[in-house]
Amino acid sequence: MSAEPKTGAPLAVLLPFKVEATRLSAPRLAPVHAALFGAGLALLAGTAWAQSGAAQLSPLEVIVKWAPLLLSGFVFNILISMVAMSLGTAAGLGLGLAMLAQNPLLSRIAWALTQFFRNAPWLVLLFFVMFLVPFQVTIFGVRIPLPDWAKATVGFSLPVMANVAEIVRGAVRSVPSTQWEAADSLAFTPRQIMWRIILPQCVKRMLPPWMNLYALVAMATVQASIVGVSEMLTLTAQVHTAEGGRPELFAPLYGFALLCFFLYCYPIDRFTARLERRFQIR
Amino acid sequence: MAAPTLSPAAWTPDQPIVQLIDVHKSFGSFEVLKGVSFDVKKGEVICIIGPSGSGKSTLIRCINALVPVSSGAIRVENIEVADPKLDKLALRRKVGMVFQQYNLFPHKTALQNVMMAPVHVLGQDKREVEERARALLQKVRLSGKENSYPGELSGGQQQRVAIARSLAMRPDVMLFDEVTAALDPETVKEVLVTIRELAEEGMTCLLVTHEMNFARDIADHIYFTDRGVIVEHGPPATFFTAASDPRTREFLSQVL
């Protein structure tokens, strides 16, 4: 920004329209980047194919051939992320409210749980659940099998729970205490105050961090491949092997997985950013 | 705790509706209230004035148990406020309160703000409550603003919604905690008019206020607090002209 000290131009912070310029200097991801990325992949696939013999399928043909399988794996990733997010949100809401409880013992325990699950690597939690939870449970003589993917889902929902608990606690705390006073003086019970007056005000504040968390969970689900769940990354590795493990297929296949996740998470990220901006103006 | 002077079960309208006996309140080692006693009769309008930090807001908050007292007794009708087994909800149905910062629920419209407590706390019929809420909003001259959110209303309008919200619970006593202190001078009047009408209808009102002229007009009795005690009180006619306490005289000379 050109400074004009002689004319005594006001500071940049007072001129929002000028600050706009700084936006350009810090580019954010845009759909065009995804297109460029895709084009890069195609180019990569093309050159890789040129180097290989003509008898084999081109990388692009390999992707097209296996796309239905790979995409079904991707859908599985999405499913795991959604279920983990739902479980984690429900549990996290309870844990967050427990942290805010009047009972010091309850709030202390909830706090400790939250800290524990928030500060543990997600992969470690995943292993923890995979190997500590049996492959089936028997309840009243009914044997309920627990497939790997179900256990993995629970594994992901643990860090979600802790993060949601923290989001809930922070949002509730951010509501001015005068709201409690006003509701108190109208004879609402503490439970009514929380559910009818405080939490509804929090939804707006909680939505952006919650959606951010979801995007992280969606991307983290590929870690389930390490514990043998047949999600996209596992399938990608299997496809690579099935195609003879040709090194030139490596980048296109994994690039395809990258692209899928990008195309899924990027709109979430954009939407979150928009929500954040809208809520800030209010 | 002071010995009760009347049997709680036997409250009749000719007895004080609010009674404070030697109320003390400390926050940590800081004693905010150092023994405050007074009676309020049904239908009376009481104004509490005094310098900032003299414990006015704390005093008024003790009456609906938003602030627990350290010692002393407070009675509202037949409810013993300082009783550890106090039914807070029963007390707060009798005592309405309006705050300096309005404290409306921002996620609800004006009408919903007024309706919420009767519907969810008293469990009254929604349609009947809505009718009453609309009438109350009309009474505070806010017809047409039913569906506005607090953020879309001016300070004075928000404060009048807050008054209507409190009245919807049909309280017997109304507490006003510096309700015009956060308002623009132009909007102060519209809120004072509302309170005046309320007082004229016979509502028992306790006001903490800095509006001396309003206090002189409206109050049946004025209490002047300084450093946690009542140093002077009387009906406005004598209070403003013949205050005997030097601190009161000094305060009045500064604000009048």
Question: Biggest sheet of chain B, strands in spatial order?
Answer: 6-7-8-3-9-10
Q: What is the percentage of strand-forming residues of chain B? A: 15-25%
> CATH first level of chain B: which class?
Alpha Beta
Number of helices of chain B: 9
Terminal residue distance of chain B: 38 Å
Instruction: Work out the oligomeric state of the chains in this entry.
Output: heterodimer
Radius of gyration of chain B: 18 Å
- Please mark out the parts of chain A with pLDDT under 50 across 5 or more consecutive residues, or reply none: 1-26
Structural class computed from helices and strand pairing of chain A: mainly alpha
Biggest pleated-sheet summary of chain B: 6 strands, mixed
Distance between the termini of chain A: 29 Å
Verbal overview:
Chain A has 282 residues and is an all-alpha fold. Chain A has a single domain, classed as MetI-like fold, CATH 1.10.3720.10. Chain A contains ten helices and two strands, in the order H-H-H-H-H-E-E-H-H-H-H-H. In chain A, helix 3 runs parallel beside helix 10 (247-281). The radius of gyration of chain A is 25 Å and the shape is flat. Mean pLDDT of chain A is 83; it is low at 1-26. Chain B has 256 residues and is α/β, with parallel strands linked by helices. Chain B has a single domain (15-255), classed as 3-Layer(aba) Sandwich (Rossmann fold). Chain B has helices at 56-63, 88-94, 110-120, 126-139, 155-167, 185-200, 212-218, 236-241, 246-255; strands at 18-27, 30-40, 45-49, 71-76, 79-80, 95-98, 173-177, 204-208, 221-226, 229-234. In chain B, the strands form two sheets. A six-stranded mixed β-sheet of chain B has the order 6-7-8-3-9-10, with helices on both faces. A four-stranded antiparallel β-sheet of chain B has the order 2-1-4-5, covered by helices on one side. In chain B, strand 4 (71-76) and strand 5 form a beta hairpin.
